[in-house]
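Per reviewer request, we include the raw input and output of the structure prediction for the construct analysed in the revised manuscript.
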Amino acid sequence: MRWQLRVWYGHGRDMKRSEKAERIGTILDELYPETPIPLDHRDPYTLLVAVLLSAQTTDARVNMVTPALFDAASTPEGMAALPVETILEHIRTCGLAPTKAKNVRELSKRLVREHGGEVPADLEALEALPGVGHKTASVVMAQAFGVPAFPVDTHIHRLAARWGLSKGSHVEQTEQDLKRVFSRETWGRRHLQIIYFGREYCPARGHDLEDCPICGWAASKRRIEDERSRRGRKRS
């Protein structure tokens, strides 16, 4: 598959960003025609909690702890009634667990008090909840409500830089760059496809860009050399 894709698309370092994005989108659609949400959830509320828990924690770890947590409480009303210590006991193996336990309870209380126990389909209202940043709110908007959003985490930020789609020094700029080069109706699935691609083909460390189905033609020669040099220094 890798070699076939590289032959099909050839060399793309002199392409415009929009041209690269179009070819990258075709590859991602071929590799990942289906984009299931990697976090197990039951509804917008449990998705919101799962995404909050996933910060600095793997999706696999979150999926290990949420079944018991959601059996204990799967609604804002139920979660707000649990002691923080009980929530913490369920999520203790997740990174930043004490802070997350407090935020899960507080955002649940806020949903009950201000939103009638419902997760609002509004980006600003979501971002106002305890522990919910722009990326988490964007994931919920895209995946729970189908509203076009392009959540960018550090992994997508890294791949966008490798592929020459963004020179942003922070995820906010990368998000804007990706929104400009990918069509609005694809934002939700591109977010998930890039995550899947990064896990399968394009890891952060020890990656040979020239052997990658996308980096192999999209990355600049300088980027390839820089990452090769970093790998060499780490091995030595």
